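Human: I'm a chemist; would you kindly supply sequence and structure tokens for a protein?

Assistant:
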Amino acid sequence: MKDIACKLLVIGAGPGGYVCAIRAGQSGIDTVLVEAEKLGGTCLNVGCIPSKALIHAAEQFERIASIGSGASPLGISVGRPELDLAKTMVWKEGIVGRLNNGVSGLLKRAGVKVVEGWARFRDGKTVAVETEIGTQIIRAEQVVIATGSGAVELPFLPFGGRVISSSGALALTEVPAKLVVVGAGYIGLELGTAFAKMGAAVTIVESQSHILPQYDAELTRPVAARLRELGIEVLTGARAKGLSPTGDALSIEAADGQILVRDADKVLVTVGRKPATEGWGLDAIDLDMDGEFIRIDDHCRTSMRGIYAIGDVTGEPMLAHRATAQGEMVAELVAGAKRSWDKLCIPAVCFTDPEIVTAGLSPRAAEAAGIRFVTGLFPFQANGRAMTLEGEAGFIRIIARTDNHLVLGIQGVGSGIAELSAEFCLAIEMGARLEDLAATIHAHPTQSESVVEAAFKALGHPLHI
């Protein structure tokens, strides 16, 4: 095969890599994008998008089932619903397919050449890509590593058979009668909750003392209450030990040292993700590392000139929108623009029931930084729109400096609150103060009015509580 020479080579077509390639192509840069699997990476194909589709389907089924049981207060009754998970998965794959085609079209429009195959570095300017028709050599002036991350596998619970990763869970065509989830982080709770709503008997095993260890107890309390409502068994301070001798159950060491056994048609392991740094020949270029991640500066430059790294492979937070922003920035840097990573706020959303959003500093982080702050919290129980949506569980919380009222962080938990994350981030990035939020008219009746109310509370003169 004839060698390819280009100005920019992007390895990995996830939300960071494909955005970087598109922006570079739009800027007139001769760009090649290499992807071993499908365009869009984990997020589009086996992560963010398909999981949210499954969560939505589960919510709809659970809502109809509750109406059918006569539990709805709305005066609506229907017959007993049935779920065809295989058909649900076809619908989910249709969404993924349309988005795949959309990414492909955008890359083509931007003039990006896509090479399908596995890339391996030969040196800092050259990679060999194993394609279906042979080895393709690509030489580039500059390279972006955007290889993403993969699910962490436990040595005593290797993936295969009954033991599945989140990707495996999103490929099931039947709802497991009994599902054990190892790990109560956001992935485990999102999927565990979804399958419980679809009829599975779910047990969640978490080694830490509480669910969602990265969030404070105030935020997770409504989620824990909902898990109990759904009949999900949550074992905290517990450790999975491995499959039983018969292979159809999971052995668990409880917090008190007792050994428990839970039958399991499937064991879903969601104990975290690790950067995809193996198999790419990174040893051939000897980059500086930060633990298991590639070390970068505020321009996403690695220790080797002309090589950038973006996304999950560079560390926390391992979020698609962080990778996208980094990819767009790097493309502009390669095009000659002056940019640097100066983000004040990277939001995180947990699509549990109810949803959790965090933006900026939490009270714990502000305390650790030695900042004096005030807090304003407004419960959705006092918000008219939340009440009409049966979404009273939860609240919005604002953290601001005591001296000048600069907003440092906004967190919230509630039904559909993910859609308010942009307002939270915009306020922080624009340097808003409590007075700015309090003086901004929000439409009535909406859940967003709770932002104003939380600001009033922090200022010491609440209106509706």
